[in-house]
Amino acid sequence: MAASRDAETWKDVQTYYGQVLKKSGDLQTSACVTTARLVPRHIQEALRNVHEEVTLRYYGCGLVIPECLENCWILDLGSGSGRDCYALSQLVGETGHVTGIDMTESQVEVAKKYIEYHMEKYGFQTPNVTFLHGYIEKLEEIGIKDESYDIVISNCVINLVPDKQAVLQEVYRVLKHGGELYFSDVYASLELPEEIRTHKILWGECLGGALYWKDLAVLAQKIGFCPPRLVTANLITVQNKELERVIGDCRFVSATFRLFKLPKTGPAERCQVIYNGGITGHEKELIFDANFTFKEGEIIEVDKETAAILKNSRFAQDFLIRPIGETLPTCSGCSALESKERYRESEVETQAEGEAGSMQEA
User: Fold this and answer.
1) Entry pTM
2) Tens-level pLDDT at each residue, the chain (362 residues)
3) Separation CA 20–CA 16 (nearest Å)
4) Is 41 helix (H, G, I), strand (E, B) or coil?
5) Where would one find the signal peptide in this protein (predicted)?
């Protein structure tokens, strides 16, 4: 029964994104509409370089372009028309590579149509982007190898998959040690009732398959990831009275998280760190997540989990990291030691309150 239901769900999603939606203006909720935020100039430029038709068919719920991308190999789950892939292909450079995977053939066709256009625009002699038709919970079936990517991104797609644990397990498999899943998705304030989960429009608009926000940390750590780190969150609005009736008291947010796959090393410890600066677009300040902003030359005390991530990920070369008590070099104008603890309560709820109201728990 489960397999049959999953197949029916995929058929509904493919119909919705392949036939019902023709452009972003056809959406009936704000779930798949990216909220305008302060976007670094180099990312704005990369997005402006994407072909108009590709952008018109874009349905993401966040900005999934992380930092420190040069030469990286990136996998985009649910790449759609290829907007994020084409922006990223410019940022990773000709020696990097971006692979986009989508289950809707019509979207993959749109993406493939403009490979030559973008490579010529970027001045690349060899294409550094590939688009594949397939399912994001079955990456092995389309030839995605173990530990082959530095970064995996996903923009409002994981909620469309009934088996979210399978997706996260596949992501963990294909990421290199020190790699990251940087993704935006939709989360619910409570366990969704059957009426919402089986509503075709709500599923197609990313609400019907939303994960109860507390379950993300449980799934991630069960698989082996570090605890999720919230980057941003925004309350979702619904522009349809009938859909509002079905949703009732449930609240939804679109949130961007970072999940890191770290090597199995010895016990981590709290550390003092200094951001060296220089990451493209973030030369003076790196907003790492909702809790940590690193300014060039400033000494920050971080918890053991954050220290382990900075030591073992692609960010290692951009930080000076020392155990607590060991003297770090200082510079003129640097602030005094600043201690920050990652809070463990409802990060999604807290951030959503700051952005656009509050999520209400069941």
Assistant:
1) 0.84
2) 344 445 454 454 444 444 444 444 544 554 454 444 578 999 999 999 999 999 998 877 778 999 999 999 999 999 999 999 999 999 999 999 999 999 999 999 999 999 999 999 999 999 999 999 999 999 999 999 999 999 999 999 999 999 999 999 999 999 999 999 999 999 999 999 999 999 989 988 889 999 999 999 999 999 999 999 999 999 998 888 989 999 999 999 999 999 999 998 777 899 999 999 999 999 999 999 999 999 999 999 999 999 999 999 999 999 999 998 777 665 543 443 444 444 444 555 555 555 544 444 43
3) 5
4) helix
5) none
C-alpha of 232 from chain center: 10
Whole-angstrom distance, CA of residue 97 vs CA of residue 88: 9
**Number of domains within the chain:** 2
Tokens of 349: 């709820």
Beta bridge partners of 301: 272, 339
The domain in which residue 257 lies consists of 2-262+345-356
Residue 279 carries which DSSP code? B
**Cα separation of 181 and 51, whole Å?**
26
In three-state secondary structure terms, 144 is coil
Write the CATH number for 36: 3.40.50.150
Q: By three-state DSSP, how is residue 260 classified?
A: strand
Render the burial of 191-206: b for 16+ CB within 10 Å, e for the rest.
ebeeebbebebbbbbb
